[in-house]
Design brief:
The longest helix is centred in the first third of the chain and has 20 residues, at 36-55. The chain starts with a helix and ends in a 7-residue tail after the last helix. Helices cover 48% and strands 17% of the residues. The relative contact order is 0.13. The radius of gyration is 21 Å and the shape is globular. Residues 1-19 have low confidence and may be disordered. It is of the alpha/beta class and 411 residues long. It has helices spanning 2-18, 36-55, 75-87, 99-111, 142-156, 170-183, 203-215, 227-239, 242-245, 255-261, 263-266, 279-283, 286-299, 305-324, 329-336, 369-372, 390-393, 397-404; strands spanning 23-29, 64-70, 90-95, 115-118, 162-167, 193-196, 220-224, 247-252, 270-273, 340-341, 348-350, 357-358, 361-366, 382-388. It has two domains: 2-140 and 282-359, Rossmann fold (3-Layer(aba) Sandwich); 143-273 and 361-393, Rossmann fold, CATH 3.40.50.2300. The strands form three sheets. Strands 6-5-7-8-9-13-14 form a seven-stranded mixed sheet, with helices on both faces. Strands 2-1-3-4 form a four-stranded parallel sheet, with helices on both faces. Strands 10-11-12 form a three-stranded antiparallel sheet.
Length: 411
């Protein structure tokens, strides 16, 4: 009874704030901890989107305001922040750095009737088994990354023996499974693996996993890690000279990872990204190029896929509010579902049945350090080596229904 009354109070506060002069949106992001560099890019992307929207008249004639809370990439904190947002009258929330955060924060947002857009959350379950009505994922899933990587690797690096070092969480498991399927490396006896604890991993844990990889017959090392876990593992792999005898594959790459680990450590690593700063020029996107130019002017560096994701989420939510003529979550959901658009790249759309954003995904390779150092910002990290269209990358509706089982409707 108390819980229902509390939720009602929060919703009343939120509704009251919507009638004021400012529309608030909530960024649930890691400003401390393993993912704080990615968190900074999320905030920069959101602020740039708000600046553009407010310059064009705001949302429903009202300016947007960003309310931020530090999640520290912790599930309990991410969920509690949704209550804090609701108490401040936030109309929607977005952010996060892990799939567990996305699921927990999304569930709490649904209880409060608030839309939630996760970032840096790649586990297949987010728009699969855990898909729900109030959650929309702009970033690609593990399956989408695995599809574009698998196609590239099968064409250019066939018949490789793989070794997997994966984070022991929902994203790590789903990414490893999807990539094993895509590269036909399902046989765990032939293609070995090690698991890294989702929290509390130590130097010796990374080193032990890498030594097992070194002792195997693998010639391709897949490191399914993020943040500081990935950075420490890559530095150790470089010290062990594994990058000289194996092709290292990191399924989800960001500029922050290359910058922190070091270009020499990350040289020639293969991975995926939904966007790089070169993409607008490749697809001749004027809006995308304007975003790149504005970001460079403000920060004297290139925007990352993380920045672009936050920017796109804010812009697309605001555009849906305009189409709906309302801040009401249910009306905005209707304006988002099956909406097709182009913003920072080529065509994208929000699938109605699972709320996954369907978009092109790119396989990328980290440039040699000598090339990176010739760049004006020394940050031109990625070469695009392969592209897969969104409709070819996403799981089919039939595959989605098989995962959902007896629950085909989003609730």
């Amino acid at each position: 009874m108390f819980r229902l009354a509390f939720c009602s109070l929060l919703l009343t506060l939120a509704t009251g704030a919507h009638s004021g002069e400012t529309v608030r949106i909530g960024l649930n992001y890691p400003s401390t901890g393993n993912y704080k560099s990615e968190g900074l890019e999320l905030r920069r992307g959101a602020l740039l989107a708000i600046e553009d929207i407010n310059r064009d008249g705001g949302v429903l004639g009202m300016p947007l305001e960003l309310v931020s809370q530090n999640s520290a990439a912790r599930v309990e904190r991410a969920s509690a922040n949704i209550d804090r947002f609701a108490a401040k009258g936030v109309a929607m929330a977005f952010g996060g750095a892990t799939s567990e955060e996305a699921v927990a924060a999304g569930r709490r947002a649904r209880e409060l009737g608030m839309l939630f857009f996760p970032t840096l959350a790649y586990a297949n379950t987010i728009t699969g088994r855990d898909a729900q009505r109030y959650l929309f994922r702009e970033s690609n899933s593990a399956w989408m990354s695995a599809r574009v990587l698998g196609e590239y690797l099968s064409w250019h690096l066939p018949n490789r023996r793989y070794y997997y070092i994966s984070l022991d969480d929902s994203w790590g498991s789903s990414m490893e499974q999807a990539l094993r399927e895509a590269t036909r490396s399902r046989d765990r006896a032939r293609h070995g693996f090690s698991r890294i604890a989702a929290s509390g991993a130590r130097h010796d844990d990374y080193l032990s996993a890498l030594k097992k990889a070194a002792a195997s017959d693998a010639d391709a090392l897949v490191i399914v890690l993020l943040g500081q876990d990935l950075i420490q593992t890559m530095r150790l792999a470089h010290e062990l000279e594994l990058d000289h005898r194996m092709q290292i594959i990191v399924p989800n790459l960001t500029s922050a990872i290359v910058e922190q680990a070091g270009p020499q450590v990350m040289e020639n690593v293969i991975g995926t990204a939904a966007w790089t700063w070169q993409v607008p020029a490749l697809v001749k996107s004027q809006a995308g190029q304007a975003f790149v130019d504005a970001y460079i002017a403000q920060h004297q560096r290139y925007p990352d896929s993380t920045t672009a994701s936050a920017y796109g989420i804010v812009r697309q939510w605001a555009a849906a509010v305009q189409r709906a003529g309302s801040l009401d979550s249910d009306k905005v959901i209707g304006a988002l579902e099956d909406h097709h658009y182009s913003l920072l790249k080529d065509a994208q759309y929000w699938r109605a049945f699972d709320h996954q954003n369907v978009q092109s995904v790119y396989a990328v390779r980290v440039r040699p350090r000598s090339e990176i150092m010739q760049d004006r910002f020394k940050q031109d990290y990625f070469s695009v080596i392969h592209r897969m269209a969104g409709d070819d990358a996403v799981p089919s509706r039939e595959d989605w229904l098989e995962e959902r089982g007896d629950d085909p409707q989003l609730r």
